[in-house]
């Protein structure tokens, strides 16, 4: 096997040296003790001084070998060849010192010959595992210990040892030596294969990490593109929505009215799909606000039904809400609204006749919030897959439905972010029910009962008396918003920058400022609002933006103004204007 640096920078021989150093550290104390025991037995017959000298020499050799191998394992600047040679010398010197105990054979009884032989056999067996069977080093070590023992049995003088015993022990020593060498070959082979498998695993892991990094980089690039392009993508769609709404308010003959209606439907469909696509990018960028707060459900469901009234009416459906008064939950308001809005949009899209229902019902301290429709239903075999991105139910789908299969995928991911479980019941020919289950809470002390009807008709009674200043640096959205507001009867003036807006504000004295958040790519819309309010304190305002980042939401919230994300439906814009112009309760003195 090649010893060049592989995936993790470790070579085969470098890994072997590290392993030898670890093994040596574990066995030091045992070697000291066994050497001391052998020295004690030898000292009884050969004298304490020679035995003590041998023990000191053996202990020193073990210490030098252990510390030397540990240092070599850390000194990677040396070549593997040089480090191997130094490890070999340490082990051979240690083996020679261990084997030198055989010099005491002439003065020892045959019983101690056997004890010393067992000691040397144990040393060789331990070295076999410590060296992982690396034979270029193990073979000389084995010859210096066990091999020398075999020779000692044949040649050492001893009157109480017969020729047969000498030959038998020599033969056994030789047999055991060859056995150890055979095992050494297999042990080292296992070590090499283990190292090769580890390197292959590391290489595969590195390839997987690289592929994952490439995929994440591509996904991040896509997310950054969508996030960066969000503003630019939303602007023309917003302008198209405003122009279409203004067009439909003009008198026209029936054929033209039909074309305008179909154009409005196409724009609404485009808006829904664009919102879905950009919602995916926000989820992947983790740009969705997750703060938990009390949510009053009756008002929420009523507002959502009012938002979708025009869409529902176009389909010839009925939209109902069902919720007991004073029903509250604690959850993530933005996530809950997005979940219900996507579910409602999906239900209206797939329902041909009948109704859709937004409902909230409580039982045993739990609140079930969901959407029920009378659509075609979802086949049982499709129900597990409808939450996959870009998957559309096969078969029972209205022909006019155009969808990319993102709505329910977004709903599932939003529910996961909110820590909620999304449930589904569906029956072919009867419809579908999607719902979430949350804990009911006691209404907060400051909460006033809300029927949700306050948003149902917020359009000003006399728009012709209301002066509106529209500020947007993009010409198409600016002109489109002007066209819609003029069609609604407002007095409208427009400006493209802060300077012209300030000049118009001084002469027009508007009652409402409708501004884009980003003028010249900066959050100058809020700066403009602050400056105009210095001249006109209490000026009503609504901010529009294609920026869906949490920072934009936080900035407008801090300024005390409502933020509408483009593209905005005409109804949402009317309702926001109504809320902005609605009289505010007087503060207590």
Short summary of the structure?
The protein has 589 residues and is α/β, with parallel strands linked by helices. The protein contains 16 helices and twelve strands.
Please give a structural write-up.
By secondary structure, the chain is an alpha/beta fold. The chain has helices at residues 12-46, 48-74, 80-99, 110-130, 135-155, 163-248, 254-284, 297-307, 309-314, 333-350, 407-417, 475-488, 498-508, 524-535, 550-558, 570-581; strands at residues 293-296, 318-323, 328-331, 355-363, 366-373, 422-427, 431-441, 467-471, 491-495, 512-516, 540-545, 562-565. Strands 1, 2, 3, 4, 5, 6 and 7 form a seven-stranded mixed β-sheet that branches. Helix 2 (48-74) runs antiparallel to helix 3 (80-99) and helix 5 (135-155) runs antiparallel to helix 6. It starts with 11 loop residues before the first helix and ends in an 8-residue tail after the last helix. Residues 1-5 and 448-457 have low confidence and may be disordered.
User: How much strand content do the residues show?
Assistant: 5-15%
Q: How does the major sheet shape up?
A: 7 strands, mixed
The first-to-last residue Cα distance is 89 Å
Overall 3D form: elongated
- Helix tally? 16
Low-confidence stretches: 1-5, 448-457
The averaged pLDDT comes out at 82
Q: H/E order of the elements?
A: HHHHHHHEHHEEHEEHEEEHEHEHEHEH
Estimated structural class: alpha/beta
Output the radius of gyration.
43 Å
What's the number of extended β-strand segments? 12
The share of residues in helices is: 55-70%
